[in-house]
């Protein structure tokens, strides 16, 4: 199976959040760590989603 693009990961995160899934479970479902999802969302301008994964980095 091909890796998901960052757009697909972000769309999946949004969809799972809308379904009421906890961010920690989303990380598990997607097979990624919390910090990996934080970084992916932050790097692509989705700080609203990044903050849900609990890692705060200085700019």
The number of strands is 0
Q: DSSP helix count? A: 4
Number of domains: 1
Q: Mean of residue pLDDT?
A: 90
Class per helix and strand makeup: mainly alpha
**Percent of residues in helical segments?**
55-70%
Distance between the termini: 34 Å
Radius of gyration of CA atoms, rounded to a whole number: 11 Å
Task: Characterize the quaternary organization of these chains.
Answer: single chain
Reconstruct the topology from this structure.
Elements: H1 6-18, H2 23-30, H3 34-43, H4 47-50
Organism: Aurantimicrobium minutum
Protein name: Ankyrin repeat protein ArpA
In short:
The chain has 59 residues and is mainly alpha-helical.
Give an overview of the whole structure.
The mean pLDDT is 90. The chain has 4 helices and no strands. The protein has helices at 6-18, 23-30, 34-43, 47-50. The longest helix has 13 residues, at 6-18. By secondary structure, the chain is an all-alpha fold. The protein has one domain (6-53). This is Ankyrin repeat protein ArpA.
